[in-house]
Amino acid sequence: MVQVGGAPFPDVVELARHADNLQVDSILTMPELYFKPKKPQDLINYLRFVSAAAPNTPLFYYHHPAHTGVNIDMAEFLEQAAEQIPNLKGIKYTSNDLAGAYSALKAARGKFTIFIGGDYLIEPAFALGFNSAIATSMNVFPRYSTGMLEAIKQNQLEIARTLQQNLTNVMNIVTKHGSKVAGMKLAMNLFTPINVGLARPPLQNPSPYRIEEIKDLLEPFL
């Protein structure tokens, strides 16, 4: 899944076309970030351009209102988009509005895949019937999310809740001294074979002293 969303619209189209030519599995795009869509049809009109640039590739929309400032009802959007964007397959839903996510899951007779994007909501989402998630924590601590899904399937709700609480504790440690992006990059560098470097400005990275503190606090959760 390749993320093609950006600020200059020509860049978005170029990236979508390039991804389509590479025959990637799917593309994910944010909305127009300057002339922000206000209504579902505004968003549909924008995504139709992206879809036309990558007609052979499944398309997913990235709903992240806290960062984009675009907070359109996703169930209403999916109902309207179902007949207008042929290769739209679903959304990544990064919002604490779990009720809205559930409405999106049921929209258009449940034809769309809804990826839950919040590390703090994985267990309640799985308990509601979601089976897909894209969460930053999975890069370092995947066993919590996969364990929650398996526990829910086995109706072991207490186990699932415990795993979610542990993951919540992990995320609280990661974000204790700065941004989530900087904290998760540090965790990946410390606990995985992949060195993703430091967060770029204007984000601030933890000091060497804080790095050791974060490492000590996270190690029991590995």
SSE diagram, text form:
Elements: E1 2-3, H1 9-21, E2 27-29, H2 40-53, E3 59-63, H3 65-68, H4 74-81, E4 88-93, H5 98-106, E5 113-116, H6 122-128, H7 142-153, H8 157-174, H9 180-191, H10 208-218
Parallel strand pairs: 1-2, 2-3, 3-4, 4-5
Helix pairs in contact: 1-2, 2-4, 4-5, 6-7, 6-8, 7-8
Structural summary, described in words:
By secondary structure, this protein is α/β, with parallel strands linked by helices. The chain has a domain of 116 residues: TIM Barrel, CATH 3.20.20.70. Strands 1-2-3-4-5 form a 5-stranded parallel β-sheet, covered by helices on one side. Helix 6 packs parallel to helix 7 and helix 6 runs antiparallel to helix 8. It is globular, with a radius of gyration of 18 Å. Its EC number is 4.1.3.3. GO terms for molecular function: N-acetylneuraminate lyase activity. One of its GO terms (cellular component) is cytoplasm.
